[in-house]
Each structure stands twice: as C-alpha cells, then as structure tokens.
Design goal:
Strand order of the largest sheet: 2-8-7-6-5-3-4
Strand content: 5-15%
Largest sheet: 7 strands, mixed
Mean pLDDT: 96
Number of helices: 10
Bound molecules: pyridoxal-5'-phosphate
C-alpha cells in the first residue's frame, strides 16, 4: 500500500472476477455465467447506429431505456433506475440506503461484501442452512438493509415468492434488496410486490438473460420515492453513467421479446441436460434456477476438478472457501459446450458411470 493511499481502506480486499482469457479461441468458457448467445441482432443494429453520435453526451435521464424496461415489467417508468451493470446499482444502494448496515448471507454474491467495505458500510452475516437454503425467519429482529440474491449465487437455489413476501412483511421499516440477476431462468420475481411493499428494491441485469454482459447494464425497480433517491446518488456520482451505445442496445434488447424467450428457454433446456449428465457421472448437483449449476464431483474435490478441466481447455469457477470447496460452478453454455464438458468429466472420472 502506498503511503498516499487512504489508511481507512487498508483492509480493502477487492472482488476477484472470473478469468477472461484473451484471444484464446479454443477455450470453453463456463466460468462467469455469461450467455453463450450473442446479443439480439436488433440490439447490435441499434448499438452500431449510435456510434456516429458519440460526439454527444448520452441521455443523462436514460429515459427511453427506462420506458422500455418499465413497459416490459408493467411498472411505471418512475420506478426504474439504470446502473452501469447491476454492480453499480448495488453500490448506489450501499451508499445511500444502509445507515443501519447491511445484512448478507454467508454464501452469496461476493461483491456485496467488498463494495460495503469500500463505502464503510457495516455488514452482519446471516448463515445459510446446511443444505444452502435460506430461512427468512433467520432475519427476525435484525436491523440493516438486506441484500438477497434470488436465485442465490453460487448455489442457484431460489426462494419462493411467498418467502420473500414474508420477509418484506415481517419488518416494513427494513429495506430488502432482492437481486434477481438470474430470475429469468425459472424463479419467481418479486416485481409483482413493488406496489404493495415500499421497503422492496428489485435489482436486475442485462448481463445474463439478455446476452449483454459486456454492455454493462443493470437496473432497479422500486417505489418512485426510492427510485428518486437512487437517482440522487447516481447524479452525485456519475450523471452520464450509461453510455449511448449501451442505452440503445439495452432498449432494443428488452423490446426483442422473441429473442429473449428463445435464448432463455434454450438455456433452461440445456441446464436440464447438464444436470442429468453430471448426476449420471456421480456428481451431486444442487437444484438450480439459474444459468449455472453448482455441482460436487464424486471425490468432492472441486479444486482438483477445476484444474483438470482447465488442462482440457474448459474453464469453470472454483471457490476456495469453507463450504464451497467441494463444488464447482458451471455456467450453462451452448449445447455443444455442455457436451464437451460432460465428455471431459466422464474421462476424468472414467470407470465411474457412463453418460451414454
Ligand atoms: C452477475 C451478477 C451481478 C452483476 O451483474 P452486472 O450487471 O454484470 O454488474 C449481480 N448480482 C449477481 C447475483 C450476479 O450473479
């Protein structure tokens, strides 16, 4: 640490993203939950035509993208705010809405804790059950803003809407941010509760189900009052946080419902095949409602499996942490990628059960 660096940040341990190989055409990349499909052709066209106007600033109110998001979810445009990736929206919530600290699960999206520490937000940890499920009763009597990924990461396990509603109703003075990064792959969304619970913020992203991870777009849905306060934070941080190309691409992507339905259904079909193939090879696989599965190999050594797959040109995510070491997280790629992964797995654990 340099002597000029703020001593208050001495303990900062930044988020470590999954590996992004450079120019390596032959790698099968199943480590960061990206979509195997390109963006919607309509999004590509809309983004391309924005390039020649980049001499101008982007719309600081992001109004037409907000309108498209609001239309697709049947909420008012004044309920929507847009972030440079949902990571930025998470940061806005941590900066502006966590006077009483933040409540996080022990196993969840790692960025919450990192970002909280950057902004000096106190965190308390609520452990998941042994089977990685969440009991919303465990938040009883605890103060602070809840950050809850549903489906959770890296487990893929989803909470039913009834449990989210119980959590919202149990303390209406406590804000609950439900991070629905993966909700389009089969879980129930809390957006339907927005009008009923002023203590709810839903976070979404274009990175997974909209095939736009590199476009950096996320958004929140909440009461108009909360949305206005998120905008106060955003406009005090970076009023032009969404570039013009991303605004155009996002709008076209969200209006292309046909492409969205086709690609997410394909992912859900491939997830079933991946789960089935891994189980046949002797893995235990958690019940996933996301575009990845969290699976434990027959020898329960996730680290060694990740290494062996890497030697075969296949990247998966391994978390070298308590409770997670027995697993790897595998993104649901294209059908061909998943077949290649299953072939490699069967070779590694060869002699076990065949995948035929
Ligand atoms: C991927 C992911 C995000 C981040 O999404 P971006 O929009 O790409 O910043 C947020 N939350 C969870 C749980 C995620 O898995």
């Amino acid at each position: 640490m340099d002597a000029f660096f703020d001593g208050r940040l001495a303990g900062l341990r930044p988020y470590v993203p999954g590996e992004q190989p450079k120019g390596d055409m032959n790698v099968i990349k199943l480590n960061t939950n990206e979509s195997p499909f390109p963006p919607s052709p309509k999004a590509i066209e809309a983004g391309s035509s924005a390039l020649k106007k980049l001499n101008l600033y982007s719309d600081p109110t992001v109004s037409s993208l907000k309108r498209a998001i609001a239309d697709s979810l049947n909420v008012g445009a004044d309920c929507v705010t847009v972030g440079n990736g949902s990571d930025e929206s998470i940061a806005f919530l941590l900066v502006g809405f966590c006077e009483n600290g933040a409540l996080l699960n022990d196993i969840t999206y790692g960025f919450y804790r990192v970002c909280a520490s950057l902004y000096g937000v106190r965190t308390s940890i609520v452990p998941l059950k042994k089977d990685f499920t969440i009991d919303v009763g465990d938040y009883e009597g605890k103060k602070g803003t809840i950050f809850l990924a549903n489906p959770n990461a890296p487990t893929g396990i989803a909470l039913p809407l009834s449990a989210i509603e119980r959590l919202l109703a149990s303390d209406q003075d406590r804000l609950v941010a439900v991070d629905e990064a993966y909700v389009d792959f089969g879980a129930e969304s809390a957006v339907s509760l927005i009008g009923k619970y002023p203590n709810l913020v839903v976070l979404r992203t274009f990175s997974k189900s909209r095939s736009l991870a590199g476009g950096r777009l996320g958004f929140t849905i909440s009461s108009p009052a909360i949305a206005a306060d998120i905008e106060r934070v955003r406009n005090s941080f970076n009023p032009y946080n969404i570039d013009m190309v991303a605004q155009r691409m996002g709008e076209a992507a969200i209006r292309d419902a046909e492409y969205f339905e086709r690609t997410r259904n394909e992912i859900m079909r491939t997830r079933a095949a991946l789960t089935e193939g891994l189980k046949r090879a002797g893995f235990s696989v958690l019940d996933s409602k996301a575009n990845f599965v969290f699976a434990s190999p027959p020898d329960r050594d996730g680290g060694s499996l990740a290494k062996k797959l890497r030697e075969r040109g296949i990247l998966v995510r391994f978390f070298d942490e308590d409770r997670l070491r027995e697993f790897v997280r595998v993104t649901v790629g294209s059908e061909g990628q998943v077949q290649a992964l299953l072939a490699a797995v069967n070779e590694i654990y060869g002699g076990a059960k065949s995948n035929a």
